[in-house]
């Protein structure tokens, strides 16, 4: 049996059969506007449609493929939505697993034994003390003379030495005098006295002698080390005793230079 159905979108009427309506639950596609609708709900009275020329024949094969395409698209959309839901759930589960794994090492770190932390702190304190002793060994030996032999013994193991103090501000020069040699022209003799005003022994300093001209401009300069100006058999390692003094005699050649004065200073 044939029927006439009406497209609700463009109002086009066309003929369908019972076989076509039963195949897809009444779903058809309009050949004019391609709208898919339920033809069973849009059936037209045959008497009303007899005078209507706007009727098209419906191809079951075409309609079937189009409806099938429509269903395929719908099924694909539903499948994509389902896949997206699955992916989102999997991502949330992966993130939860990741953070749970990362939190475990933190728990292990917090559970470090107290004795291990205490041992580490103890080693740091000992290292700091030894470093302070190393850099302050001279001052320690100065104020605690009884400890100096032990410091010297330790320095032998690590290739260092316990030097005498070098407080240059406590070393003064006194009673300086310069004279030309009567027998040798150009030979100048300088005599002076070094005094240690500190309350402890100090290393002998270097003496810097500068000869100047009439305008006090430097003409000659020389630095004398302790072994060069000390008397023979002087124990240099013992240093200049507290409150002690030493006589200094120096000689310098100034041949061809017009010397009118001098400057003398000490340094380490």
Please tell me about this protein's structure.
The protein has helices spanning 18-23, 46-49, 60-110, 114-135, 137-143, 148-158, 226-229; strands at residues 2-6, 13-17, 27-29, 36-38, 43-44, 55-57, 171-180, 187-196, 206-212, 218-224, 245-253, 261-267. Strand 1 and strand 2 form a beta hairpin. The protein has 7 helices and 12 strands. The chain has 3 domains: 1-109, no CATH class; 118-158, no CATH class; 168-267, Immunoglobulin-like (Sandwich), CATH 2.60.40. The strands form 4 sheets. A 4-stranded mixed β-sheet has the order 5-1-2-6. It is an alpha+beta fold. It starts with a strand and ends with a strand.
Average pLDDT, all residues: 80
Largest sheet: 4 strands, mixed
Count of separate structural domains: 3
Give the strand content. Answer: 25-35%
State the distance separating the first and last CA atoms: 128 Å
Assembly type: single chain
Q: Largest sheet, order of strands side by side?
A: 5-1-2-6
Specify the overall morphology.
Answer: rod-shaped
Rg is: 56 Å
Strand-and-helix sequence, N→C?
EEHEEEHEHHHHEEEEHEE
Number of E-type strands: 12
- Percentage of residues in helical conformation: 25-40%
Helix-strand makeup class: alpha+beta
Low-confidence stretches: 56-67
DSSP helical segment count: 7
Give me the secondary-structure topology.
Layout: E1 2-6, E2 13-17, H1 18-23, E3 27-29, E4 36-38, E5 43-44, H2 46-49, E6 55-57, H3 60-110, H4 114-135, H5 137-143, H6 148-158, E7 171-180, E8 187-196, E9 206-212, E10 218-224, H7 226-229, E11 245-253, E12 261-267
């Amino acid at each position: 049996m044939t029927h006439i159905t009406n497209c609700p979108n463009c109002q086009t009427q066309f003929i369908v059969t019972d076989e076509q309506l039963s195949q897809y639950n009444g779903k058809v596609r309009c050949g004019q506007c391609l709208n898919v609708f339920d033809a069973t709900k849009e059936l037209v009275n045959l008497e009303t449609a007899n005078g209507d020329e706007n009727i098209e024949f419906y191809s079951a094969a075409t309609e079937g493929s189009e409806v099938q395409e429509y269903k395929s698209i719908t099924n694909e959309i539903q499948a994509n939505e389902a896949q997206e839901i699955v992916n989102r759930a999997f991502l949330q589960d992966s993130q939860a697993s990741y953070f749970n794994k990362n939190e475990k090492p933190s728990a292990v770190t917090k559970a470090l034994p107290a004795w291990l932390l205490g041992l580490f702190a103890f080693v740091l304190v000992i290292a700091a003390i030894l470093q302070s002793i190393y850099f302050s060994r001279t001052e320690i030996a100065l104020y605690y003379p009884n400890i100096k032999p032990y410091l010297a013994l330790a320095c032998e193991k690590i290739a260092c030495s316990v030097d005498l103090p070098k407080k240059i501000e406590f070393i003064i020069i006194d009673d300086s005098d310069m004279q030309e040699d009567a027998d040798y022209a150009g030979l100048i003799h300088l005599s002076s006295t070094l005094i240690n005003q500190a309350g402890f022994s100090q290393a002998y300093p270097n003496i810097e002698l500068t000869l100047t001209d009439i305008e006090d401009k430097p003409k000659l300069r020389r630095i004398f080390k302790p072994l060069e100006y000390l008397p023979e058999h002087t124990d240099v390692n013992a240093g200049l005793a507290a409150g002690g003094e030493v006589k200094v005699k120096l000689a310098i050649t100034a041949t061809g230079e017009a010397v009118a004065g001098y400057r003398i200073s000490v340094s380490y």
